[in-house]
Amino acid sequence: MNPALGIRLGAHRIVYELRSYFRAPDSVFFTFLFPIVMLALFSVAFSSAADIQAGPGVSVDYATYYLPGLVATGFLLSGTQALGVDIAGERSDGTLKRLGGTPLPVVSYFVGKIGMVLVTSIVQTALLLVIAGVVFGVDLPTDGGAWARFAGIMLLGVATASVLGIAISALPREGRRATATIVPVVLVLQFISGVYLPFTQLPDWLQTVASVFPLRWMASGMRSVFLPDAFASAEPGGAWHLGLGTLVLAAWLVVGTVACLLTFRWNRRDS
Questions:
Q1: What is the pLDDT of residues 88-126, one digit of tens each?
Q2: Per the confidence metrics, is the pTM higher than 0.85?
Q3: Which of 16, 18, 23, 250 is the most exposed place for a label (fewest CB within 10 A)?
Q4: Start and end of every ABC transmembrane type-2 domain (predicted)?
Q5: Secondary structure of 39-79 in HEC code, one letter for each residue
Q6: 271 in a domain, yes or no?
Q7: SS3 letters for 118-175?
Q8: What is the domain range of residue 202?
Q9: In a domain, 246, yes or no
Q10: Domain-located, residue 65
Q11: Would you give the DSSP letter of residue 30?
């Protein structure tokens, strides 16, 4: 296949996928708006609580504290959860089978899905940061190095979450079971990865389990961007461990890509 043609078809698929995404109210609420809703809930619920301390004279309010984890959660929701449920549904209702009978290459289909996740993640994150700064008074970074780190973690996180979403879509045998199969996994990862609870307050064995998965490292990476350096003391080992986090995310990106290539089929498993 001509690579240029594959890219053009992939670009057309991105536009198509974006239109389909924003026409589905459940996807918009449970993936696109969910981090924003959770930030608003936590900010309002703890508005009268004392700030979270990280040392003498270093503290942040609850909106600032929860923002990094919710940014990372948005990548997992838009990538792993949304793609996993969506592709499983398309496989079950025959959409993939019909696409398999067209000249559309698999790589162009993947480009459309991953491109949709990237665009929605950028828009979602930008909206989340604007609301955090304007409505809840969160002080966003002013250092260019912090924003460069943010961009790197975001791109790696979105790519990893996307390929894992494509791979996990092969698990549900029927599209109607996809939500029940995939959403609980994503929800559990949020609770054990330091999104809603301080990571070091979890039992050591649960920290070890969470550290195997990518969300823990996306969340800690985002905390290194949005929280003062003193908050690194609340991480395991008292440091952000950005290098280790990058290696774990890169490993999951490779594993997810291989799993996509091995498990993706146009037809249903039972057809």
A1: 999 988 999 999 888 899 999 999 999 999 999 999 999
A2: yes
A3: 23
A4: 26-267
A5: HHHHHHHCCCCCCEEEECCEEECHHHHHHHHHHHHHHHHHH
A6: no
A7: HHHHHHHHHHHHHHHHHCCCCCCCCCHHHHHHHHHHHHHHHHHHHHHHHHHCCCCCCH
A8: 3-45+58-263
A9: yes
A10: yes
A11: I
